[in-house]
């Protein structure tokens, strides 16, 4: 997985914040261990899923002095079964103990996010629809979770409020109309993607006439989604959103929408159950 400078900086900040809240002024339990005592440990998963989080493990170990080495047994984004050894660690026993919770927290959360994403991506197999994430992420971990979504085979929506327009119900009300809001967006930052949330087929017509790039079909019924796809006829990309789950996603994808966005893959994620145990 590609890591750009923004993500690299986020990883470092994530780890520093996690260590600060966990280690504080010092790990008093690890201080009981002879500093010269070395150990090996392995991290396993008790559940099947998608492994994700290698860069956060490496950064955690580096932040703790780089005296612990990690050897990864599976690749980032790989599917793993219960009982699989994900990676092994070797170094001072006290450092292994200090690192344990921080690195496990990152890997279990990100693997859980990737696993949830993959489950929905698999459901979309055979359709043209791509799965998008949302901004419904854990505060401070947005880039981390969006990285995990990519590990799971999903596609990132906008990163935040700064990289694309998403004109929603309250924006439309404040601007006066979809047409006015889209015109203001074009004038404010020409060239940036403009997406409009629409709640009716009439609003979809207005969004297309205004020149929006994408229309988000907010809580449309299956019948109205089919009508919207026919109405758009390829003139605007369509994103279905709102109340979509594993039971409804395939039928919605088969209407021909370009995207389906799901907040649940990042906001209701179930972390993978992991364990670290000393060996030898």
General description of the model:
The chain folds into two domains: 128 residues, Quinolinate phosphoribosyl transferase, N-terminal domain (Aldehyde Oxidoreductase, domain 3); 140 residues, Aldolase class I (TIM Barrel). It contains ten helices and twelve strands. The chain has a six-stranded parallel sheet with strand order 6-11-10-9-8-7. With 280 residues, the protein is an alpha/beta fold.
Name the shape in a single word.
elongated
Strand order of the largest sheet: 6-11-10-9-8-7
The chain-level structural class is alpha/beta
Characterize the main sheet: 6 strands, parallel
Q: Can you say what the CATH homologous superfamily of the largest domain is?
A: Aldolase class I
Assembly level: single chain
Computed CA radius of gyration, to the nearest angstrom: 22 Å
Number of domains: 2
Helix count equals: 10
* Gap between N and C termini: 33 Å
What is the CATH class designation of the largest domain?
A: Alpha Beta
CATH topology of the largest domain: TIM Barrel
Strand content: 15-25%
DSSP strand count = 12
* Unreliable stretches: none
**Can you name the CATH architecture of the largest domain?**
Alpha-Beta Barrel
Give the helix proportion (percent range): 40-55%
Helix/strand order, N-terminal first: HEEHEEEHEHEHHEHEHEHEHE
């Amino acid at each position: 997985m590609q890591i750009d400078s923004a993500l690299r900086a986020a990883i470092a900040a994530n780890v520093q914040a996690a260590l600060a809240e966990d280690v504080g002024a010092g790990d008093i339990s690890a201080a009981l261990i002879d500093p010269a005592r070395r150990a090996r440990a392995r991290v396993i998963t008790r559940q099947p899923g998608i492994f994700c989080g290698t860069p956060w493990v490496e950064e955690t170990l580096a932040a703790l002095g780089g005296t612990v080495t990690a050897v990864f047994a599976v690749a980032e984004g790989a599917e793993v079964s219960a009982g699989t050894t994900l990676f092994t660690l070797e170094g001072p026993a006290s450092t292994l103990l200090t690192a344990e919770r921080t690195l496990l927290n990152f890997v279990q959360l990100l693997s859980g996010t990737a696993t949830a994403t993959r489950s929905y991506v698999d459901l979309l197999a055979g359709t043209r629809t791509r799965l998008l994430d949302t901004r419904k992420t854990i505060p401070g971990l947005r880039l981390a979770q969006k990285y995990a979504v990519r590990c799971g085979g999903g596609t990132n929506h906008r990163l935040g409020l700064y990289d694309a327009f998403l004109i929603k119900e309250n924006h439309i009300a404040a601007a006066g109309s979809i047409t006015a809001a889209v015109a203001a967006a074009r004038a404010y930052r020409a060239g940036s993607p403009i997406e409009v949330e629409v709640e009716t087929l009439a609003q979809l017509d207005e969004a297309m006439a205004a020149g929006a790039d994408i229309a988000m079909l907010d809580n449309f019924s299956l019948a109205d989604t089919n009508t919207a796809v026919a109405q758009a006829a390829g003139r605007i990309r369509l994103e279905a959103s709102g109340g979509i789950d594993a039971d409804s996603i395939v039928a919605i994808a088969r209407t021909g929408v370009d995207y389906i966005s799901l907040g649940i893959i990042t906001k209701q994620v179930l972390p993978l159950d992991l364990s670290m145990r000393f060996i030898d």
